[in-house]
Amino acid sequence: MRAIVAGGGIGGLAAALSVAKQGHPVTVLERRAEFTELGAGIQLAPNAFHMLDLLGVGDEVRERAVHVSELRCMDGTTGERVASMPLTDAYRHRFGNPYSVVHRIDLYQPLLDACRRDGRIELRTSSAVVGYRQDASGVTVTLDSGEEVTGAALIGADGIRSAVRQQVIGDGEPVVSGQTIYRALLPMDRVPQELRWNAVVLWAGPGWNFVHYPIGRGTLLNLAATRDDGASQAVAGLPAEKAHVMAQFPQLHDSARRLLDLGEQWRSWVLCDREPQAGWTDGRVTLLGDAAHPMLQYATQGAAMALEDAVLVGALLDCGQDDVAQRLEKYNAERYERTARAQWVSRALVPQVFNPAGAEARQRNEMLASFTNDDFYDKVAWLHGLRDVTGGVAS
Hints:
CATH class: Alpha Beta
Number of helices: 12
CATH architecture: 3-Layer(bba) Sandwich
Helix content: 25-40%
Shape: globular
Structural class: alpha+beta
Oligomer: single chain
Strand order of the largest sheet: 6-5-14-15-16-13-18-17
Radius of gyration: 21 Å
């Protein structure tokens, strides 16, 4: 029973591994000319590592990751340290894994290597999926070249602008958030010693925020500065002049501004997501990751949700061809509520934590400063807790 995966990103490769573990052959169709991962830093909570362990690559990712000791919130204008959530002994004991940060390629490469080692997985490049048709016996995928590929199931893991989604749901372009994010990587040897924190640090300001953390096994500092600028057109990876980036954050505290000023080769993206959709399955076809439930980065769960999707869809495809559609409906039903909640929380965190101004910012500071460590852990338990493949959570 061959499964077809549209998209060779993190979610697509994870899905291929998960399905192959059931003994099924898998064909992964990647539109680009090579299997690689673009972008810079990514945060991985314990639930992501639990999925990576189930996929057999957890130790490889841990070895490449930086295991940060805290999530720290700073008032972006005053420089006040507002609050910190420790991520060491008590956190790891409660949630069973570290909270870590990696370069995206350091998550992607172990998944890719595992797929290449698995003789049941066929990896194809320059194979963009443009549509599909299906009947009682299977699903046939059409590529942009006109070639057709046939299997028992199609998993659309082809990103926020998924061609598979457009046939399953047909909801058009993603929702533009009105926020522009500027990203750069800074060699750690250029970072002032007093600012080399083993932490994910948020500088929260009025209508903007600046996040940084170490990646590349500690050799790089990932810089991500976001401005609520009312952007109305989606752009991805456009070069941005340093002077332009600096001008977007005029009230940024001097300590953070020193880091921002050290950044070079800035690139910009306009953040997008989509409204949650309860139904992302059509017979033998389903969606996964950003194709199913794209979310803003603020809850830092986009990759983790894709990994959870992948583990579950593979586990449910321990069946014959006649049961595929039913199993994919079950997968959709079990994943919808959790992923939709993550989408909404990611949006809500912008005005509540990351970008408030004036009285709202002071209220945020007072609220976060009042939390104990256990209060913080209770807040994130539904996201970070270890999960089984049927969606149960143990916090």
